[in-house]
Write a structure and sequence with these properties.
The protein is mostly beta strands. It has one helix and six strands. It is 7% helix and 51% strand. Strand 2 and strand 3 form a beta hairpin. About 10% of the residues have low confidence.
Length: 134
């Protein structure tokens, strides 16, 4: 039995790229920056960035393309996929994630939604007095 499951969280390094196959199937690719702390050799720690390419297929790819933007924090779970290709006489390879789930961990902006209630005003004293049992 084999298990192929990957879960990462990080920030998008650029806006995603939406393409379609010759059969019309949508393919969305985006890179997620995942930081890891490593010893810096001087008794401290520094962050190292790992860029993970993520791919989403089908109608979800089209829907996510409208939502995902550079800098957005996401959590991605799916399966690892190893790819190889040749370009200019050189062989290349990469491990990425074919995403089953993409969860948004931050909003694109700090502005509230248009119909969101304004929560900055304090309720006046006595508004909830009848609800307090003591």
């Amino acid at each position: 039995m084999s298990i192929n499951k990957a879960v990462i969280s990080g920030n998008l390094g650029a806006d995603p790229e939406l393409r379609s196959t010759s059969s019309g199937k949508y393919v969305l690719t985006f890179n997620v920056a995942v930081n890891e702390s490593v010893p810096d050799g001087n008794g401290g720690w520094s962050d190292r960035v790992n860029w993970i390419e993520c791919t989403v297929f089908g109608n979800r790819a089209s829907a996510l393309e409208r939502i995902l933007k550079k800098g957005l924090k996401v959590a991605v779970s799916g399966r690892l996929r190893y790819r190889t290709w040749e370009k200019g006489g050189h062989n290349y390879s990469k491990v990425g994630i074919v995403a089953d789930e993409v969860d948004l961990m931050s909003t694109r902006s700090a502005e509230p939604a248009p119909d969101a209630p304004d929560m900055t005003d304090e309720p006046s004293a006595g508004v909830y007095d009848e609800d307090i049992p003591f």
